[in-house]
């Protein structure tokens, strides 16, 4: 078959011959007419060939366009692009009074309403039958009997506000174990945030000393020795050190030197202690540690302003800062840019192994994205009219990553939006004081939510249990990971039903965690009492809750620490 290229050559050749014949006038009329006829025939053949080629090209172009549109509107269900916002594919359609937030990814359509779940979203019906109980028993030795003279314990805490809080609590218990006088703990001023605040600038030091006076003798500074200042012996105790560990490792040195300073003091005391010592922990955490008046006043003002906006509100502790994500080793679909940025930050911690993002996320170790938190809350019944206070640092991805959450919950607030710069001026240069303001709002909110299981999330979960089991939502990260991954292959009704099922045992209800499970600061079971004769849980629900809680504890890292100060992680791991 003659090719198109060959026909073109033949056509060009005939054109030349025709011109030559016209110039020389040597060709007869019959020959000329014959050439013209042949020339017209060739043009017809070429036209038909071109038409076939153009039809073939058009068909190929149509297929490519169809594939491109399919990849945009129907991404593969295995895609792990969980970080990049999808707000470009969402539109609001109003039908009468009902608004739907349409997500055109498969069948997944997110309603603006949380729906009617037949229960109170803002409290637990059985919570009034529980109360915090941390008073010492009659057998507990008081400070005037137990404390020995000339035996001083100093503490250097480590990390940010809530990590340091764990150290302060355990310092009191350690002093009691060692029969020593406690010197007011020294706060960490060298961590990531470089906060220069001392203990008395964040906590009410006089109240702290007074409230614990029957338990441990506490003084503000180490007295001089022989009229001169003296330097105590410094020791680093192992993590999770139990009372025997202190008695064999610290007490002999204390007896010789009379003053010992324990450095990098956080999580240096065993999670499991006898009941009397656990109750002492609760007295320190829930009663003795009180913020200074300026912090309390500003914190209460923030709470009042939130309550003026709505009868109920959610406080969300959103840990999605670059440092947090880099340390976790998680990947959120941001491509080479994200890998390069977070990889550079991760290099600060030389002892961290190479990350396996898929494994980390599969094991439930990754913080939820802002979008995932929003979807979880909507599935649990919170509609778009709910007001949300967000306690957060600088979110990775900025407004772009916050956009899906704000789309789901447009009543979006923070301390910067409900207070003026002038009101926050005395706190804004100190990360610990700013964190204290968020702590107060998260404590006073109707529902507390965390996208992680860091120190602040644990502390507040335990505190809210102690003071009446106020709802505190933790994410069942291992289960939710799979659900978020495949959500484009299911309807909203199926998705929301599964979220509610997976979150049983993660909502802050009474008895949802077994005694002794998790960190004591998160589950202070020794300090929780129940009214006698009250049946607080249907048996089936209680078993489901305990089962879920056990699974949750099996996937969590018991030594997870706030990333703000993880530049010291090498020292933690070397213990």
Automatic annotation (TrEMBL):
The chain crosses the membrane at residues 53-74. GO terms for molecular function: glycosyltransferase activity. Pfam families: O-FucT. CDD domains: O-FucT_plant. InterPro entries: FucosylTrfase_pln, GDP-Fuc_O-FucTrfase. Keywords: Carbohydrate metabolism, Fucose metabolism, Glycosyltransferase, Membrane, Transferase, Transmembrane, Transmembrane helix. The keyword Cell membrane does not apply. Belongs to the glycosyltransferase GT106 family. This is O-fucosyltransferase family protein.
